[in-house]
Amino acid sequence: MEKCVDALKHNFAGVRTGRANPHVLDDIKVDYYGVPTPVTQMAGVKVPEATMLVVEPWDKTMLNPIEKAIRNSDLGINPSNDGVSIRLPFPAPTEERRRELVKECKAYAEEARVAVRNVRRDANAKIERDEEESEDDVRRDQAKVQKLTDSYIKKIDETLKAKEAEVMEI
């Protein structure tokens, strides 16, 4: 269940809000001497201001390939290369775009809830298969699993609420 919440937080990190977030680059890979390497492992990523990311590659020959990979990604950001670093301006999303992002976040949260419920189902099935437990023990263990499930669903809802507030913030 903890992994479900961690996966949700990872998905939320990739949702682009009006603020610059270095985690949006986590899934972008660049061919570095024949090996697909994440941008974050081959460059320093800085946030000099709330709406700007600066990517400074350690190997300056990788400046153009990194810029090309960012441009070809689905981020919707147009990078600018000044010969030393790559600047990524994050424009503030429109009201309509923010609502779409909230819908995307809600979909991620629902996926996490389903995953937690699947873990609950598997745990309950395992409890029922245990032949050495009495009916009372089975009910008690299932109640514990349900209580744990409820606490994780609550964590997911709180995480969603915080992300919604961040996305809708102007």
Structure description:
The structure is a single chain. The longest helix has 35 residues, at 95-129. The protein is elongated. A four-stranded antiparallel sheet has the order 3-4-6-5, with helices on one face. A two-stranded antiparallel sheet has the order 1-2. The mean pLDDT is 87. 19% of the residues are buried. Helix 1 packs antiparallel against helix 3 (95-129), helix 1 packs parallel to helix 4 (135-168) and helix 3 runs antiparallel to helix 4 (135-168). The chain has two domains: 19-89, Gyrase A, domain 2; 95-168, Topoisomerase I, Chain A, domain 4 (Orthogonal Bundle). With 170 residues, it is of the alpha+beta class. The chain is built from four helices and six strands. Helix content is 54%, strand content 16%. It has helices at residues 2-13, 63-72, 95-129, 135-168; strands spanning 29-32, 35-38, 43-49, 52-57, 80-81, 86-89. Strand 5 and strand 6 form a beta hairpin.
Helix and strand arrangement:
Layout: H1 2-13, E1 29-32, E2 35-38, E3 43-49, E4 52-57, H2 63-72, E5 80-81, E6 86-89, H3 95-129, H4 135-168
Antiparallel strand pairs: 1-2, 3-4, 4-6, 5-6
Subcellular location: Cytoplasm
Protein name: Ribosome-recycling factor
Function: Responsible for the release of ribosomes from messenger RNA at the termination of protein biosynthesis. May increase the efficiency of translation by recycling ribosomes from one round of translation to another.
